[in-house]
């Protein structure tokens, strides 16, 4: 009886620690992700009906 309770406690503790480690690494990954830098090359250009680029 004591052996099964000890194994249950060890298994539960290992699972909880595993979940905590995964959660903290996931939080770090989202925290370190920065916003992309917008460059002028990637901007969409709008054109008027006569084919000329429109200014903003």
Question: What can you tell me about this protein's structure?
Answer:
This protein is an all-alpha fold. It is 55% helix and 0% strand.
Distance between the termini: 76 Å
DSSP, total strands: 0
> What is the molecular shape?
rod-shaped
Q: Per DSSP, what share of the residues sits in E-state strands of 2 or more residues?
A: under 5%
Q: How many helices?
A: 1
Rg over C-alpha atoms, rounded to the nearest angstrom: 27 Å
Spans of at least 5 consecutive residues whose pLDDT stays below 50 are: none
Helical fraction: 55-70%
Summed over residues and divided by their number, the pLDDT gives a mean of 80
Largest sheet: none
- Coarse structural class: mainly alpha
Give the helices and strands as they follow along the chain: H
List the helices and strands and how they pair.
Layout: H1 2-32
Condensed summary:
With 56 residues, the protein is an all-alpha fold.
Task: List key phrases describing it.
single chain, 1 helix, rod-shaped, mainly alpha, 56 residues
């Amino acid at each position: 009886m004591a052996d099964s309770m000890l194994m249950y406690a060890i298994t539960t503790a290992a699972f909880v620690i595993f979940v905590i480690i995964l959660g903290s690494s996931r939080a770090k990954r989202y925290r370190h992700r920065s916003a992309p830098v917008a460059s002028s090359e990637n901007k969409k250009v709008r054109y008027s009906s006569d084919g000329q680029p429109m200014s903003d």
